[in-house]
Design goal:
Elements lengths: L1 H6 L12 H25 L3 H30 L16 H12 L3 H24 L9 H23 L7 H24 L20 H8 L1 H29 L1
Length: 254
């Protein structure tokens, strides 16, 4: 396995954010994601079992991609040592776990709808924001760069698919339910950050240093880490809510 990983360690000049490569790949990928979501959703509309099969396949693809990434980082990048910084539990990692768990809860309408609404709102938010600020996705290896970009393009597909196939909920009450799930994930992320004593930065809410995300980093430096974390989480909730309203509009008019 290590020999295979090393053979796929194709180097590249790290693309600059908003370079031609980044913009062209993103636009093509998002167009493909939207097209695929519309086409597949039309075949799965009002057929939750069929729609869950699609999300499960996405979960498997994400899990296989993340497994390869973790092995690549361990063997090639870090020369046999594990880097907690890349532990797969960011906001954009949660869809992988939820997609894999969905088949187990598909018979419970309330739980399934909450999970799919979370995927619709926060999957889409994570995918859009990461592609708009892609510095963490661009690496000096082709496989890592492609993994980062394709992962977040797939998140956009998932969010739109959950909306258009009607497996997600609508209305403010359904959005409110997703906040409990988001809070649960934040609690796990915080525990990982504390246990690793700052080696991990899951959800970018480590109490050991200022928030590393652009804009919120400056808030942390000026007003304290807690203020930066709270405003960062509030922005995630607001972004998810705005996307939820947008998806409700799509369901009503398309």
């Amino acid at each position: 396995m290590s020999q295979f990983l090393k053979k796929t360690a194709w180097p590249m000049s790290t693309p600059a954010p908003y370079s031609f490569f980044h913009i062209a790949f993103t636009l093509a990928g998002v167009f493909g994601a939207v097209f695929a979501a519309v086409c597949l959703a039309s075949k799965c509309k009002n057929n939750p079992a069929k729609a869950i099969s699609v999300t499960t396949i996405c979960g498997i693809i994400l899990a296989l991609g993340e497994s390869y990434k973790q092995l690549f980082l361990y063997v090639v990048v870090n020369q046999g040592s594990f880097d907690w910084w890349y532990f797969p539990f960011q906001l954009c990692s949660t869809p992988m776990y939820l997609c894999l768990c969905l088949p187990a809860v598909k018979k419970s309408l309330a739980v399934r709808q909450t999970v799919c609404t979370y995927l619709q709102d926060f999957c889409l938010l994570g995918g859009i924001m990461a592609l708009l600020e892609p510095s963490g996705l661009l690496h000096p290896y082709w496989v890592l760069t492609l993994h980062g970009l394709l992962w977040h393009i797939l998140l956009i597909f998932l969010g739109l698919f959950c909306c258009l196939s009607r497996i997600s909920g609508h209305g403010k009450r359904e959005y409110a339910k997703t906040l409990f799930l988001l809070g649960f994930f934040c609690l796990i992320a915080l525990c990982i950050n504390i246990i690793t004593k700052g080696q991990a930065d899951m959800f970018y809410i480590s109490p050991y240093y200022p928030v590393t995300q652009i804009f919120f980093n400056q808030i942390s430096l000026n007003y304290g880490t807690l203020a930066g974390i709270l405003l960062y989480l509030a922005s995630i909730c607001l972004g998810g809510f705005l996307l939820h309203l947008s998806m409700d509009f799509l369901k009503t008019h398309f």
